[in-house]
Design a protein that fits this description.
Distance between the termini of chain A: 23 Å
Largest sheet of chain A: 7 strands, antiparallel
Structural class of chain A: mainly beta
Oligomer: homodimer
Order of helices and strands of chain A: EHEEEEEEE
CATH topology of chain A: Jelly Rolls
């Protein structure tokens, strides 16, 4: 019996919309999600959890209230719980997010228009 | 204030030993670890947790009691909790592991010689 790997670039080729994370795997009560980001997101924080960003392709700036972090392909960054942040991508960036199941992408921001549906698998 | 990304390849250049995972980041009570693997590991399982493998460079076969999974660069695979597995790498492979803090690399196998020290950060 052959088991199957999950190839990140293959999964990323299956969708094109921005700011709509797709679940690709679970690790206990955590999820791996892929997303394509472009433009400026909303300032928000996740009071209940850290959030990991891994850059698969492109560049992402995460603005923080006291500065920023610039991420490129192969970079990992963990936004600590409760820390306000705003992802900004001048060009499209492809990222993997790792966070507990059920986390809302807009966190504590009151931005229903930007809030993505959860539990969308590809 | 500029915050700093964690670059996986840069971190991987800092060590050369095999089967000795190094912690690079924490996400709540989980850790991201980098490891270089070569050869055959021991059959083991982690009765208390799933374990994620992400391939940064090279190829890895994970043998399972009912088959195997072949992983190449950019692949992700989650070994479910309690599932016996044995990583095998003909040539060196560079991987990122994601799992809860404190997990012993040899799991339930009684193999002290192969058991790596935990909480080694790079």
């Amino acid at each position: 019996m052959t088991h199957h790997a999950i190839n990140l670039k293959e999964k990323l080729s299956l969708f094109s919309e921005h700011w709509q994370p797709k679940v690709i795997a679970e690790l206990n009560d955590y999820q791996f999600k892929l997303a394509k980001l472009k433009g400026e997101f909303v300032w928000h924080s996740h009071p209940e959890t850290d959030e990991a960003f891994m850059i698969i392709r492109g560049q992402l700036r995460i603005e923080l209230r006291d500065g920023y972090v610039d991420l490129k392909e192969g970079d990992l960054y963990v936004v600590p719980r409760g820390v306000e942040h705003r992802p900004v991508a001048l060009e499209e960036v492809q990222v993997m997010l790792i966070e507990p199941k059920g986390i809302v992408n807009t966190g504590d921001a009151n931005e229903q228009d930007l809030t993505a549906e959860n539990e969308v698998w590809i």
